[in-house]
Amino acid sequence: MSNPLLVARDLVKTHGSTPALRGASVDLHAGEILAVTGASGSGKSTLLHCLAGIVRPDEGTVDYDGERLDRLPEKRLGELRRTDFGVVFQFGQLIPELTAADNVALPLLLAGTPRSAAREQAGEWLERFGVRGQEALRPGEMSGGQAQRVALARALVTGPRIVFADEPTGALDSLAGEQVMTALVHTARETGTAVLLITHDAQVAAYTDREVSLRDGTVTAEGAWHPSADGTSGPSAAGTAGSTGTTSTEATR
Ligand SMILES: Nc1ncnc2c1ncn2[C@@H]1O[C@H](COP(=O)(O)OP(=O)(O)OP(=O)(O)O)[C@@H](O)[C@H]1O
Questions:
Q1: 177 vs 3, 62, 90, CA distance in Å?
Q2: pLDDT tens sequence across 106-142
Q3: Ligand 1 centroid – CA 204 distance (Å)
Q4: From 2, 83, 156, 248, which residue has the greatest number of CB atoms within 10 Å?
Q5: Quick check: helix, strand or coil at residue 6?
Q6: 3-class SS of residue 252
């Protein structure tokens, strides 16, 4: 079995006087699609922020591919956030003044890709997420589902190894939510990108390989990780509805 790509151990994080994490541990494998569930206030977003290097835990360790993320200097963390990690939030957080194409091209431009190549790649990613033809629209001119698909294109355009998604369908109706999840899972499987996905929604969790549940800042339930034959991804024996023996192609239909 492959070693996990990301390993968090005994994370503790307190916001002011509010404890958010009280010793949470979780692993994420390369290519794995992991759901993090739990009641409101159980610490899901704080866990994601610690794992993505957005906030530092007060205690505990986060190892990412041989580096101690919780101890890295800001500069290296910034690099990793630009190159290895993609992040999507509940409200896509696209830049309102920029068109869809420019929002998606931006991470490439920041990484030094020439403008014409960045525009071309942005177009390809918008196509992948079914929003080609919307290039010139600004976020305020799109539906919520379109905006989330643009946000996913922006998160994946640089070829990250992990996408962190904090309730990406939480603000969408069920049809739009399903389209966004289908696009995310399909693309993640195609590209071998690991996804850590926070959700309240059992239907959304059903698209994933494995689920961990948080309660009061600790992990209370965890499915087992079973890589598939190619070693990159696979459903858990504990199995959620969408992963009970479905192939990646089936899961995205
Ligand atoms: N910036 C902050 N300042 C103060 N308290 C915070 C902050 N962020 C989170 N908290 C508190 O920490 C606890 C965990 O919050 P967190 O957002 O991680 O939980 P969550 O499971 O993601 O919740 P939700 O599902 O409602 O988004 C909650 O009690 C929350 O009120």
A1: 32, 31, 11
A2: 999 988 999 999 999 999 999 988 888 889 999 999 9
A3: 21
A4: 156
A5: strand
A6: coil
Prediction pTM value: 0.86
| ipTM at complex level | 0.96
- Identify the CA nearest to 185 among candidates 246, 124, 228, 239: 246
CA 101 – ligand 1 centroid, Å: 33
Residues in the chain, overall count: 253
Whole-angstrom distance, CA of residue 214 vs CA of residue 144: 28
Angle at the Cα of 163 (from 157 to 164), degrees rounded to 5?
135
SS3 of 102, please?
A: helix
Residue 116 and residue 105: Cα distance in Å, rounded? 10
Could you report the per-residue pLDDT of 148-185, keeping only the tens digit for each? 899 999 999 999 999 999 988 888 888 888 888 888 98
If one residue of 11, 12, 13, 18 were mutated to test the ligand 1 pocket, choosing by the most ligand atoms within 8 A of its CB, it would be 18
